[in-house]
User: Which sequence fits this backbone?
C-alpha cells in the first residue's frame, strides 16, 4: 500500500502554515483523488490510509487537524477509528469529517456519537468538500443537507427519554450570559455565521465563546455541547 498511501507531492512545502489533513478510504483511486484535490487547494495532506488500524497509527503519528474518513474500512470500522483516536489522543484528537457513500440514518448517528464533527455523502463536489474540511477545522458541524435535522432530532429524543432537564439558569452557572446565549443558538442548529449575524458579533467571537464553553464544561466537541444544551432545556423557546 506504500505507493498509494504516500503524501501528495507539494504538500510538505506548506506544512508550516496550511491546514493539516489526513484522508482515509479503502479505495485507492478515490483516496488519492480526494488527497490531490485538497492538496491542490493549499491544504497540507500529511498522510493517507487505506484501512482502520493504519488510520489510527498514522493519525497518532502525524497529528492532522482534520481527518476525512470513510466509514466502511477493512480491519476497523470508521466509527471505531473515531473512538480510538478520541481516547488515545487526548486534547490533540483530530476533528473528523466523515465522507461516506452511505446516507443511512444508522450510519450517520453512529458516526456522530463516535465523535465525528460532520458527515458528507460522496456525491458532494470538490468545492463542497473543501469548504466542509475548513469548517470542520473551525469546529463547525457540517452535514449533507437533511442530515443535520436527523442528528438534532435524535439528540432531542434521547434527552426526552432521560432525566427531567434542569432549569436553563441552573444548567451552566459558570457560563456568562453571552456564552449561554451562544450555546442555546448552537444547540438549535445555527451555524457560527448565522449566530454572528443574529447577535451582531464577529464570526471569530462566536468561535471563541464556543471554545470557552467547551473548556468550562469539560466537553470535547460541538456534538457533546449540543446534547448538553438539549438535556438541560436550553433549546426551549
Assistant:
Amino acid at each position: 500500500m506504500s505507493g498509494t498511501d504516500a503524501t501528495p507531492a507539494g504538500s510538505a512545502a506548506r506544512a508550516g502554515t496550511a491546514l493539516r489533513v489526513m484522508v482515509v478510504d479503502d479505495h485507492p483511486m478515490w483516496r488519492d483523488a480526494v488527497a490531490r484535490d485538497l492538496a491542490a487547494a493549499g491544504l497540507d495532506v500529511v498522510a493517507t490510509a487505506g484501512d482502520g488500524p493504519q488510520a489510527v497509527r498514522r493519525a497518532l503519528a502525524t497529528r492532522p487537524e482534520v481527518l476525512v474518513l470513510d466509514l466502511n474500512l477493512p480491519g476497523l470500522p470508521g466509527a471505531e477509528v473515531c473512538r480510538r483516536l478520541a481516547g488515545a489522543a487526548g486534547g490533540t484528537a483530530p476533528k473528523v469529517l466523515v465522507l461516506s457513500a452511505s446516507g443511512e440514518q444508522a450510519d450517520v448517528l453512529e458516526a456522530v456519537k463516535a465523535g465525528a464533527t460532520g458527515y458528507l455523502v460522496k456525491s458532494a463536489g470538490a468545492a463542497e468538500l473543501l469548504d466542509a474540511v475548513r469548517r470542520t477545522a473551525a469546529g463547525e458541524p457540517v452535514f449533507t443537507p437533511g442530515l443535520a435535522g436527523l442528528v438534532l432530532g435524535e439528540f432531542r429524543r434521547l434527552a426526552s427519554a432521560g432525566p427531567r432537564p434542569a432549569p436553563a439558569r441552573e444548567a451552566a452557572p459558570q457560563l456568562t450570559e453571552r456564552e449561554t446565549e451562544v450555546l442555546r443558538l448552537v444547540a438549535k442548529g445555527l451555524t457560527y455565521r448565522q449566530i454572528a449575524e443574529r447577535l451582531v458579533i464577529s464570526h471569530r467571537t462566536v468561535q471563541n465563546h464556543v471554545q470557552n464553553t467547551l473548556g468550562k464544561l469539560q466537553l470535547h466537541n460541538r456534538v457533546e455541547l449540543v446534547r448538553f444544551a438539549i438535556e438541560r432545556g436550553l433549546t426551549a423557546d
